[in-house]
Amino acid sequence: MKTILHLLTLLLLGGMPSVGATTNQLDALTLEQALALAEQHHPQLAEARAMVEAAAGRAQQAGTRPNPEVVVRAEQIPFKDTPARDRQYVVGFAQTVPLGSKVAKARQAELLEQDARTRRLEVVRRDVRKRDHTAFATALYQEQAASIQTRIAEDFSRTIRLIKARLAAEDAVPEELARAEMEQARAEVEVRRSRSLQEQARSALTAALGSTELHIQSLAGTLEAAFEVPTLESLTARLAEHPELLEAQAAQKVNAARLELAMVQQIPDVTAEVLYRRLEATRQNTLDFGFRIPLPLFNTGQGRVREARAEALATEARSRSTQAEQQKQLHTAHAALTMALANRRALKDDILPRAKTVLEAVEARHAAGELALSDALSARREWAAVQLAHLESLRDVMHTWAGLSAHFKTP
C-alpha cells in the first residue's frame, strides 16, 4: 500500500524522475526533483507542519470564554423525614467572567506562538534543503569520480593489450607488461573504492530525502554551475531575513506576551450566579443573584510572573546570540565560497588544459618510441589526479553555495 501511495505521489509531481513498476527506483534524479521529494517526504518537515497546526489549535482554544455552569440544588434536606414544605429547590446558571482581558491576551500569546512555529518550519525547511543539496553534490561527485576511475582502468586494459601485441612482435620487454598490469590492478582497486563510495553517497542522499523506501539508480545534472558571489555587504544587509533570526525574534514576542498574560492572571475571575428558588413553605418563586470572587491568599500567581519574566530575558539573550552566530557563519560561508570558486577557476582555466596538453604530448612521444612506458603511466596518473581535483573543486563549490544560500530568503 505504501509503495502505491509513493507511486501516485511521484506521478502527481510534474517532472518527477521515472519510477520502476514495482519499486520506488529513481532514475536520472535532478537536484530540483530531490528538493521536491524532500519537501514531501522528510519527517522533520512533517513534524514542523504538525507543530504549526497544533499551535493554531491552541490559539483557537485560547480565544474561547469559559462555559456557563448549570446549578441544580436541593436545600434544607435533613437526615430525618420533614414536611415537603420545609425543603427548597434551586435551579440556575453560573458564569465565570475573566477580568483583565485574559482571553484576548491568551489568544494573542498563542497566535504569536503559531507565528514562531511557522518561523521554525522555515528554519527546518532551510536545513533540510541545505543537507539535501550537499548530499546531492556529494553523490553526483562520487558518481562522476567512479566514471573517471572506470575510464582509467579501461585505458590500462587497452595499454596491456597493446604491450602484449608488441611482446608477440618482440618490440617490448616483459617489464613493461608487469608495470602496466600493476597500474591496472591499482586502477581496479580505485574503481571498487569509488563504486563503494558512490553507493554510500546515494544512501546518504536517500536519508537526506527523508524516505527509506526510495532507491536512487542514477543522478542527472552537472557539478558545473555559474555562481555569482554576492558582496558581503549585501549579504549582511539581508541577514535580518534569516529564518533563525526571525524565529528568535518571534520567540521574544511570544514570551513578552506570556509575561503580560501572567500578570493579568493575578487578577481573580468573577463568577456571577442567577438562580431560581422555589419556596415550598409559601409556594413562592424567587430569584437569587450572587457573585463568587476567589481570595488570592495562597496562590497569588507570582511564580508564573517570575517564570515568564525569566523566559523573556532568556529569549532576548538567545536572540542576540543567534544574531552573532549567524553573522559569523555568514562571513565563514562567504570566504569559503570565494576560495572554492577561485580554486575551480584555477583548475578549469589553467591546470586542466595544461595537464591535458602534457598528457597528449607524452602519449605521442611514447607512441613514437621516444619515452618509456613509465613516463606515459606517470602522465596518466597526473591527468587522473587533475580530473579528480577538478571534480572535488566543483563539489566544494556546491557545498559552500548550499551553506551560503541558507542566508537567502527562498520562495
Based on DSSP secondary structure assignment, what is the total number of beta strands?
Answer: 7
Q: In this structure, how is the largest beta sheet organized?
A: 4 strands, antiparallel
What is the residue-averaged pLDDT? 84
Tally of contiguous helical segments? 9
Strand order of the largest sheet: 3-4-6-7
Order of helices and strands: HEEHHEEHHEHHEEHH
Structural shape:
elongated
Spell out the key features of this protein.
single chain, 411 residues, disordered N terminus, alpha+beta
Give a written overview of the molecule.
- The chain is an alpha+beta fold and 411 residues long.
- 66% of the residues lie in helices and 10% in strands.
- It is built from nine helices and seven strands.
- It has a four-stranded antiparallel beta sheet with strand order 3-4-6-7, with no helix packed on it. Strands 1-2-5 form a three-stranded mixed beta sheet.
- β6 and β7 form a beta hairpin.
- α2 packs across α4 and α4 packs antiparallel against α5.
- The longest helix is centred in the N-terminal third of the chain and has 67 residues.
- The chain is elongated, with a radius of gyration of 37 Å.
- The N terminus is likely disordered.
